[in-house]
Amino acid sequence: MTRLSPSAAKKKRVTIGKVGAAHGIHGEMRIIPLTDFTERFASMKEVMVGDELLHIESCKYHKQYVLMKFREYPIREDAMRLTGKLLTVDRSEAAPLAEGEYYTFDIIGLTVYDVKGKELGRVENVLRTGSNDVYQARRLDGGELLIPALKAVVKEINIAGGRMVIDMPEEISDAH
């Protein structure tokens, strides 16, 4: 399974949320979680918001949001300037994954090969279908290849090597 945690522009940072609208009159901001690990917010002391390191004064959960107040922005009107900015943490602070789990941003960009070593294309997106993820790859000829994220199909994922090896039925992998 691929965990949703889109990356920031710099590969060394991991996006975990986005600042939404202000909440109330005391400078709290709604944070839209962009991570499968929402429990992480409660223990955080600081976070990068855009290009600024901010200290978390308070954090609580409200409906689908996380409400945060930042020490550097005690006034609602000032805090509203953060709306739309991304919250990121250093990649070393990314939540640990179980064996066989990968971050979406690690999968995107992998070169896809068949089991015989033939290059098929490059992963451009990860689609979340509910039952299993689907890796959307761009074929060398410009066509699209949809790869179900199943052990029966995906034989190897090598993040460090930048490659994914798949074994798909010919009628699927040869289709344009």
Automatic annotation (TrEMBL):
Residues 105-172 form the Ribosome maturation factor RimM PRC barrel domain. The keyword rRNA processing applies. One of its GO terms (biological process) is rRNA processing. Keywords: Chaperone, Cytoplasm, Ribosome biogenesis, rRNA processing. GO terms for cellular component: cytoplasm; ribosome. GO terms for molecular function: ribosome binding. It is found in: Cytoplasm. It holds the Pfam family RimM. Residues 15-92 form the RimM N-terminal domain. Its main location: cytoplasm. SUPFAM superfamilies: PRC-barrel domain, Translation proteins. InterPro entries: PRC_barrel-like_sf (IPR011033), PRC_RimM (IPR056792), RimM (IPR011961), RimM_N (IPR002676), RimM_N_sf (IPR036976), Transl_B-barrel_sf (IPR009000). Binds ribosomal protein uS19. The PRC barrel domain binds ribosomal protein uS19. An accessory protein needed during the final step in the assembly of 30S ribosomal subunit, possibly for assembly of the head region. Essential for efficient processing of 16S rRNA. May be needed both before and after RbfA during the maturation of 16S rRNA. It has affinity for free ribosomal 30S subunits but not for 70S ribosomes. Belongs to the RimM family. This is Ribosome maturation factor RimM. The gene is rimM.
